[in-house]
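User: Last request for today: this protein with alpha-D-glucose-1-phosphate-6-vanadate, please.
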Amino acid sequence: MKTVSTTPFPDQKPGTSGLRKKVPVFQQPNYVENFIQSVFDSLEGFEGETLVIGGDGRFFNREVIQIAIKMAAANSFGRVLVGQGGILSTPAASNVIRKNKAFGGLILSASHNPGGPNEDFGIKYNTGNGGPAPEKVTDAIYARSRVIDTYKICETPDVDLDQIGRVEVGTMDVEIIDSVADYAALMEELFDFAAIKAKIAGGFRLTFDAMHAVTGPYAKEILEHRLGAAEGSVKNFVPLEDFGGHHPDPNLVHAKDLYDLMMSDDAPDFGAASDGDGDRNLIIGKGIFVTPSDSLAMLAANAHLAPAYAGGLKGIARSMPTSRAADRVAEKLGVKAYETPTGWKFFGNLLDAGLATICGEESAGTGSDHVREKDGLWAVLLWLNILAVRGESVKAIAEAHWTEYGRNFYARHDYEDVETAAANGLVAELREKLDRLAGTSVQGMTIAAADDFSYLDPVDGSTSANQGIRILFEGGSRIVYRLSGTGTSGATLRVYIERFEPDAAKHDVPTPEALADLIAAADEIAGIRAKTGRNEPSVIT
Ligand code: VG1
Ligand code: CO
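Assistant: Here's the final one, the structure of the complex with alpha-D-glucose-1-phosphate-6-vanadate:
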C-alpha cells in the first residue's frame, strides 16, 4: 500500500450522471485516482464492506477498473465484485449492489456518448440502495476534489478480469462475477417469460439493436436463449470499445437503420434498442415510433399485466421535461404523480420510500423499483409482456391509449456544442424576463405562467433549484429550456415542446405539424437562432 501526493484538478464536478470528460482528460496523471479518492473520502464506514465495479466496456474501461480495484484495497474495502471483462450494464450493476448488500459501486460509463481514444469516458458512484449518489454526496465529492492532496493505492499486479473466480489484492477479496446471470434471473422473476416465449414461438418477430454496447450479452441471453427469439434477432451484440464508431444513443438519428426497418414492409412486429450502458430504451412498433414519454404512460397503464406489477402501482414519477402523458394515467389509476428534476438520482428517494413504482424520463429512460437505475431491457421486456397478454400490435395499443387519455404531442430539440457563453447568455436572459412573461402572447398563444423549476424532495426535504425554465401556456401546452449536464464539449441547449390534444380525430397529425406554433414560439421567446447562430437543432427526438 502506498500513499501518493497529488494536486487537485478544478473540473471534477459530477453532472447529471457522474463525472464525464474526454478520455485524454481522464488519462492525465492522477486524474482518475484523484476522483476515486475524492469519492472514498466523502464516504464513511466502508471498511471491510463490499464495493461493486463495472462499466460499459468502452475504451479505457479496463485500465480504470484496475486502478479502482487497487485503490479500494488500499482504502480498506473488504471485497470488490467486478463484472467479467469489466462489463456490467448500469441496471445490472444496480442489481448487484442491492443483491449483495454492497456499500456502493463505481459505474464506469459515459452512457450514450461515443467511445474511443478521443471520445468520452465517465465515472459515477452509486450508493447502497443501488442508485446514483444524491446531490449531497456528489457535492461532497466535488468539494473534496478541490482540496485533495494524497490518494492511496496498492502496488500489486493487475487482476485477470476475464477469469470468473476469486483472487486477493492485499487483504481484499476480488470476485470476478458473471455479468449477466443475476440480471437475467431478476427479469425472469418480474415478467411472464412463458407467455412471451409462447408469443414468439407463435411467429411474433422482434429485433433488438445493442449498438455494439453493453446490452449485447444481456439481450442475447434473455431474448434469444431464454425467450426463443430467432438467432440474429439481437443485432450488433458484441460490445466494442468504440461502439463500432457510432454513438450508442438509441434515438431516431443514431438508430436510424432500426427505424427504417420498422417502417418498411417486411418490418418485424417489435423493434428496440438500448444505449452504451444499457439504461435507455427505444421502442418502435411496426410502422410506429413510441416516444419515451408515451412509452412511460403506456407501460404504467398496462403494467398490471406483468406479474411483478399485478398488485398495481404505488405512484408514477417523471422528470419535469417529460411529457405529462403519465400524469393522466396516474390520475385514472388513482395514484400520485411526481415531477422531479432531470437525472435518475432524484427518483431514488421516491422508490426507497415506496411512493413510486414506475419512473421515466423523456430521454428514453424508464424503470421501476426493481433496481435504482433506469433499465433499457426491463422496458423492452415489459412491452413484450404486455404485447403477449393483450395480443394486439404496438400500434393498436398506442392508438387506443391516445383515444382513452388524449395525446401529448412531444418533441425535444437539442442544439449541441453551442458556444458556452452564448448558451449561458440565452438562459440568463430568459431567467431575467421570466417574471414579465405571464399574460403576454406569443404566436397567438397566451402564456399562463413562467418559472425556473425548483424541486422539494418530499422524502428528505432537500431542495434543488434552477432545474429548467418552464413556459406554460393557457390550454396546457408547454416549452421547457435547460442546459445539458452530461456533455463534454461546449454547451447543449435542450428545448422540450409539448401540446395536449384531446380530440382523437387529430391524433394522426405529424408531430412537427402539431407543434409548429410552439416551435416558432420557442425561438421567439428565447432568441435561439440569433443567440446560438443555429438555424435548426442538431438532433430532434
Ligand atoms: C441526459 C438526459 C437525462 C438523463 C441523463 C443521463 O442528461 O436528459 O434525462 O438522466 O442524460 O442518462 P442531460 O443533463 O444531458 O440532459 V444516461 O443514459 O446518459 O446515464
Ligand atoms: Co445510459
